[in-house]
Hints:
Number of helices: 0
Distance between the termini: 39 Å
Order of helices and strands: EEEEEEEEEEE
Amino acid sequence: QAQLIESGGGSVQAGGSLRLSCTPSGYTYMAWFRQAPGKEREVVAILYIDFGGTYYAASVKGRITISRDAAKNTLYLEMNSLKPEDTAMYFCAARRGRWAAWPLPVSAFNYWGQGTQVTVSS
């Protein structure tokens, strides 16, 4: 079972920024999900690595960017203008092989990291 390792979480004030990292990144699709206490896991952003396509949840569009540095074998999630409602455990996920639908559902991802906590205070 492949292991994804996240880093970069922390505590910031509203309006602040964080950059999450996930390694390794050599998959067909990679994504960031988040899960707040008592809520379901939800997609934040997806990157279709082979073609560079991206998908963002409506709640984060314009504030968050998913990207990959192939040389560093690392996936990033750049988060700006953070809000208290962004507080959650953030998970890196990956999938090998094509998937017919876009965006991919959570069930399509084969590999998951342990998560990194992001806390945004008002």
